[in-house]
Design a protein that fits this description.
Layout (H helix, E strand, L loop, with lengths): L1 H30 L1 H8 L10 H42 L7 H8 L1 E4 L7 E4 L4 H16 L10 H17 L11 H8 L1
Antiparallel strand pairs: 1-2
Helix pairs in contact: 1-3, 3-5, 3-6
């Protein structure tokens, strides 16, 4: 029913709009980080502070900045995941053009069980990169007149580097894995 499709798309647009707002809020946090830190720690940089107090404040500021950088990166990727979710819902509106495996990958589960009355949802997920490629390709085919995404371009390679950054801070093996350089932050912003 076309009305349900319009309602679903409007809900998706609202969800994506909220995600964009979250990314922008994190970006603004990074741009105002020095002022925000000074507001929270007015003693920072005062000449009459003891050396140990200044060291402590410098460590707090470093951790504060690194936390905000990690928050930004994670929020950007949550935005991407939200976009993928939205695209999948739009593609599923055209389920007549999809085979069973495509439907399973888009809804991220399959029904299993001994009989129709005892079916359970079993999660089925592609890895993050394959999920992106599959979704973009299906969306391009079904909703954008067979548009084909170029996965051999500089932007895709940079995006793959950003995924490595996100994976490193999400699943750290060492404390250094939590550190995001200014160059890495610039790459994620781009």
């Amino acid at each position: 029913d076309k009305m349900n499709e319009i309602d679903n798309i409007n809900q998706i647009i609202n969800m994506v709009g909220g995600s964009i707002s979250d990314v922008e809020s994190c970006n603004e946090d990074l741009e105002r980080i020095d002022d925000d830190f000074m507001r929270r720690n007015p003693d920072y940089g005062r000449p009459d502070n003891s050396e140990s107090y200044n060291i402590m404040l410098n460590n707090i500021k470093r951790d504060f900045i690194l936390f905000r950088k990690r928050t930004y990166v994670k929020t950007v990727f949550q935005y991407f995941e939200g976009i993928l979710f939205a695209m999948k819902r739009i593609i599923l509106e055209n389920s007549a053009e999809l085979n069973d495996n495509e439907i399973i990958w888009l809804q991220e589960y399959k029904l299993t069980g001994p009989n129709i009355d005892n079916l359970k949802e079993e999660p089925v997920r592609l890895n993050f990169v394959e999920n992106i490629k599959f979704t973009l390709n299906k969306y391009g085919k079904i909703r954008s007149n067979n548009y084909v995404t170029n996965f051999n371009c500089k932007e895709w390679i940079n995006f793959m580097d950003c995924i490595k950054i996100r994976n490193r801070i999400t699943h750290p093996k060492h404390s250094d894995d939590m550190i995001i350089s200014d160059e890495e932050l610039i790459k994620v912003r781009e």
